UniProtKB/TrEMBL annotation:
The keyword Magnesium does not apply. Pfam families: ABC_tran (PF00005). SMART domains: AAA (SM00382). Residues 5-226 form the ABC transporter domain. It comes from Levilactobacillus hammesii DSM 16381. Keywords: ATP-binding, Nucleotide-binding. This is ABC transporter ATPase. InterPro entries: AAA+_ATPase, ABC_transporter-like_ATP-bd, P-loop_NTPase.
Length: 236
């Protein structure tokens, strides 16, 4: 299979503090990958580096392209709605996406809006935290790209809706696209994950296929991830 993402010796510092170092990571096309790690481990930073909105050392190739300025044409990232005023209506935000991203699929967005039960006539100020996250998910998945980066997309969404969205993720992902999900609801996203990437000690500490974790260690994804942080299982 072809590689959607290839990271080589990536490093990043902020205010002279090392956030990430010596990150090597290759992801194949068509996968759903869990990006796991404690708060502050560097998961969001890694996603921002992949999109090109942050710059580090080393190289990042998305679909073979190492030019950071080109990455946004290959990557759809769950960015917050900070650039829009509180009085902006949801449908106006979608219009902006249509203008900025040629790959934005309006029909797909409408399908997602219906599925997620979003009222696009509402202003952003009228939305709850969970509803804003549903809007962000719809905007992100409406783009037709090679790589989707979902950074804690479900944190404000109620349990029933969250489980429904997670179980339908496969439906919204193009077959040849790769999706990376960073989330604290590890047990809930585990059933849909093909692989996991664990960020620890400021680097990619482990990268394994989900089935391999279950077979090699005889434990679920969440238990394996927690054991790495506790030190009771050694990675290879």
């Amino acid at each position: 299979m072809t590689n959607v993402l290839a990271i080589d010796q990536l490093g990043y510092k902020h205010n002279f503090k090392t956030i990430l170092h010596d990150v090597d990571l290759t992801l194949e096309a068509g996968k759903i990958v869990g990006l796991l790690g404690e708060n502050g481990a560097g998961k969001t930073t890694l996603m921002r580096l992949i999109t090109g909105s942050a710059k580090g050392t080393g190289t990042i190739a998305v679909c073979g392209d190492t030019q950071a300025a080109h990455h946004r044409s290959h990557v759809s990232f769950t960015e917050q709605l900070r650039g829009f005023t509180a009085n902006t209506r949801v449908d106006r935000v979608a219009d902006f996406y249509r203008t900025v991203y040629p790959d934005f699929d309006g029909a797909r967005f409408e399908e997602l809006v219906t599925f997620l039960q979003i009222d696009t006539s509402l202003k952003l100020a009228a939305l709850s935290k969970g509803m804003k996250e549903k809007v962000i998910i719809a905007l992100t998945l409406a783009r037709q790209v090679n790589l989707y980066l979902l950074d804690e997309p479900f944190s404000g969404i109620d349990s029933m809706s969250r489980k429904r969205i997670i179980s339908s993720i496969i439906k919204w992902k193009p077959d040849d696209a790769t999706m990376v999900i960073s989330d604290h609801y590890v047990s809930e996203i585990a059933p849909i994950l093909d692989e996991i990437v664990v960020v620890k000690d400021q680097t990619v500490y482990a990268h394994k296929e989900s089935d391999a974790v279950r077979e090699e260690f005889g434990m679920g994804i969440e238990a394996y991830y927690e054991s790495l942080y506790e030190g009771s299982v050694q990675h290879d």
